[in-house]
Design brief:
Order of helices and strands of chain A: HHHH
Shape of chain B: globular
Largest sheet of chain B: 2 strands, antiparallel
Distance between the termini of chain B: 71 Å
Distance between the termini of chain A: 20 Å
Largest sheet of chain A: none
Shape of chain A: elongated
Oligomer: heterodimer
Main location (chain A): membrane
Largest interface: A-B, 13 and 15 residues
Strand content of chain A: under 5%
GO cellular component, one term (chain A): COPII-coated ER to Golgi transport vesicle
Helix content of chain A: 55-70%
InterPro entries (chain A): Yos1
Number of helices of chain B: 14
Family (chain A): Belongs to the YOS1 family.
Subcellular location (chain A): Membrane
Structural class of chain B: mainly alpha
Number of strands of chain A: 0
Strand content of chain B: under 5%
Order of helices and strands of chain B: HHHHHHHHEEHHHHHH
Number of strands of chain B: 2
Radius of gyration of chain B: 31 Å
Mean pLDDT of chain B: 78
Chain lengths: ~80, ~300
């Protein structure tokens, strides 16, 4: 059971990459998860689906540039150390 | 050992030096008294050294001469002052910025414990069935320190329990001839990784269900760290009494942790419902109840997963 912190970091990086790759127009709109489709009224309970959509959109916006950097570092490290 | 020639020069200074040079600066290279007598800058200390060498080990003489050399040299004096001012600046910088990364003052709250609190809390972790009042007392909007309220979360027990768990895991592996030092690090890292996964998963679910709770991240780490106590008990019993003892104690601790987590988290996550006692707006409260049950059920699972390979 070699579940180390390093493998956790790798898994987290892959998950964030997966979220960042979901394209807004081509994919999310087609399954009804586009961010302009989910804004309900100003009710008190946003609901899980709209929270998820907000989360996806904010991850894509915020993590775009840091992901480039972290991915480059990870690629170089994996090439060198394996 | 004293040539006697410069003792006269040293005599007027002798009165001052013993009071100043009380600090035994034991530099390994300077312990040889013969070397000092050739050093011209330590001419004042020669009489001092003659008095000291029969009695002591030459350390006061050793301390006299290099410091004499230091203070007599203005460049090294300046360098020392510059170095100490640099160190002071660095310390200031660290003190100013440490609060951004690690909330030191908040952490101090979680370590304000005493022996009685630890004893009562450990008893509560193993036997939570008779405890009636699970509310944390507040004092003017801030929660009371753990020292004064047994319901308050602390980080002392989880930290100590984690370290003890790693050590006990090493002990268990050693009794089965499977021990090697890097396995200790592997166990620690694995347990930490599972803790991180738990914290992230719970934070994500709290965000998705939009729970307005005062459960901070450190609180969550504290609550999730309490299961290490049960794990230690289980593994120790397994070492003493074999698999039967391990399963018995682990089962007991699993149920206790389950009840403990439900009763504690109910007050934090299901705050309104717990306060009124009436299920308001059933759907949302249902989700919160599911979350509490899931968190509480994950504890026994993780307790088993992290310890079953240690007891054979």
């Amino acid at each position: 059971m070699a579940f180390t912190l390093y493998s956790l970091l790798q898994a987290a990086l892959l998950c964030v990459n997966a979220i960042a790759v979901l394209h807004e127009e081509r994919f999310l709109k087609n399954i009804g998860w586009g961010t302009d489709q989910g804004i309900g009224g100003f009710g008190e309970e946003p609901g899980i689906k709209s929270q998820l959509m907000n989360l996806i959109r904010s991850v894509r916006t915020v993590m775009r540039v840091p992901l480039i950097i972290v991915n480059s570092i990870a690629i170089v490290l994996l090439l060198l150390i394996g | 050992m004293n040539p006697g020639g410069l003792a006269a020069v040293g005599t007027p200074r002798q009165r001052k030096w013993p009071s100043k040079r009380r600090v035994p600066v034991s530099q390994p290279g300077m312990a040889d008294p013969h070397q000092l007598f050739d050093d011209t800058s330590s001419a004042q200390s020669r009489g001092y050294g003659a008095q000291r060498v029969p009695g002591g080990l030459g350390y006061p003489a050793a301390s006299a001469s290099p410091q004499g050399a230091f203070l007599a040299d203005p460049v090294s004096n300046m360098a020392m002052a510059y170095g100490s001012s640099l160190a002071a600046q660095g310390k200031e910088l660290v003190d100013k910025n440490i609060d951004r990364f690690i909330p030191v003052t908040k952490l101090k709250y979680y370590f304000a414990v005493d022996t009685m609190y630890v004893g009562k809390k450990l008893g509560l972790l193993v036997f939570p069935y008779l405890h009636q009042d699970w509310e944390v007392q507040y004092q003017q909007d801030t929660p009371v320190a753990p020292r004064f309220d047994v319901n308050a979360p602390d980080l002392y027990i989880p930290a100590m329990a984690f370290i003890t768990y790693v050590l006990v895991a090493g002990l268990a592996l050693g009794t089965q001839d499977r021990f090697s030092p890097d396995l200790l690090g592997l166990q620690a890292s694995s347990a930490l990784a599972w803790l991180t996964v738990e914290v992230l998963a719970i934070l994500l679910s709290l965000y998705l269900i939009t729970v307005n709770t005062d459960l901070s991240t450190i609180d969550l780490v504290a609550f999730l760290g309490y299961k290490y106590v049960g794990m230690i008990g289980g593994v120790l019993m397994g070492l003493l009494f074999g698999k039967i003892g391990y399963y018995l104690v682990l089962g007991w601790c699993c149920v206790s942790i389950f009840v403990f987590m439900i009763r504690t988290l109910r007050l934090k996550i299901l705050a309104e419902a717990a306060a009124e006692g009436i299920p308001v707006r059933g759907a949302r409260n249902q989700l919160r109840m599911y979350l509490t049950m899931a968190v509480a059920a994950a504890q026994p699972l993780l307790m088993y997963w992290l310890t079953f390979h240690l007891v054979r």
